[in-house]
Amino acid sequence: MDVTEVLLPGVGLRYEFTNHRGERVGVVARRTGDFELVVYAGEDPDEGRPVLELNSEEADTVAEILGAPRIAERFADLTKEVPGLVSGQVRVGAGSAYDGRPLGATRARTQTGASIVAVVRGEDVIASPTPQEVLRGGDVLVVIGTHEGITGVARIVQG
């Protein structure tokens, strides 16, 4: 899908695309950190009908809600395209040595070759977690790699 980026001097940036119904949709990212979702009435790119306004925290929440299923779909597609690559889930137990420690402390990718691509914490999904992300008991790690790599991550985190 083609997304056009337009600089709005003094305001921020507007990203726009045409959806499957032929409607032009825009997301205005304001310099204040707020966002506005607009739909354009006609051919005039300045004549947008505001649909929704979100502060930065609300925008992050919507992005997580919309992004989490898409991330899972993309990983599933990737594992179909690359022979030997699979996805798996590893639970961090309350008694794990990594409960309360940063993800980077596991050295999981270095030791196993598998990548932790998301952390599911209750209803929240932390996509592309940084090494500084602190793991908690009950977290579910979404891991991409070989079967052996995923098993290795489980051994590290649960051992």
From TrEMBL:
Membrane-spanning segments: none
Domain of life, source organism: Bacteria
Domain called RCK C-terminal: residue spans: 73-159
Gene Ontology molecular-function annotations: monoatomic cation transmembrane transporter activity
Single Gene Ontology BP annotation: potassium ion transport
Cited InterPro entries: AAE_transporter, KhtT, KhtT-like_N, RCK_C, RCK_C_sf
Protein name, UniProt field: Potassium transporter TrkA
